[in-house]
Amino acid sequence: MDVVVLPTPADIARAAADRIADIVSQRPDTVLGLATGSSPLPLYQELARRHREEGLSLAQTQAFLLDEYVGLPADHPEAYRNVIDREFISLVDIPREAVNSPSGTAEDMTAACAAYEEAMRAAGGVDIQILGIGTDGHIAFNEPASALTSRTRLTTLTKQTRADNARFFNSLEEVPMHAVTQGLGTIMEAREILLIATGTSKAEAVAQLVEGPISALWPATVLQNHQHTTVFVDEEAGANLQLRDYYAHVHHNRPGA
Ligand code: F6R
User: How many CA atoms lie within 13 A of 134 on its CB side?
Assistant: First the structure.
């Protein structure tokens, strides 16, 4: 796991966009894994700017979303499919039909989750997965006590996650109780992962993710076993890291750089 501490969310957005642009230039038909939520928004804005001003094209890519609320009507503005469309897809040239998302409205959830996994496999798997992290250590909607090998499934959100996400709704009661999420085992199959965490509220989860014991209590810790994960944090989200100075030292003294 590489840990990169940068001064601001804008610096993180540029560094993560550099990596994505690099991968897409090597492989135009890259399969992108997209997170919603506020953490990746500066990255999506930076990619959109490069598309608009510098000719970055994502036209041959495909995308898979991590998760979706259950119980929201398909046209609800906070349904993740609509959020990602508004905040990213509509600003770049990824064809809408190349964007896949778990269904939050399927009658047969088990079959829909299995079909989603199959679609990911058929696409060749995710090349680069963008992740945020919840204050309780979730990635996608794998809440504490999720199996570290879990697959795409229906899950129940914690009180903390619903409270954290209430800012996107008119009230806490409106935040769905359930979601469909890629599992931890599913996410672990991505070839490369970029996790973005900013702000003080993420400091404890980030310290656990990077330096804590691997535990279902902090689901993101499973990423310690991933071969190619970069954790981008700003000063605030990185504030509780014990080996902060060492990560900066590693970053500035890369072999061959
Ligand atoms: C969203 C997702 C979640 C968020 C996490 C952090 O698709 O998978 O795990 O990444 O809840 O959300 P923000 O970025 O809004 O703090």
Answer: 22
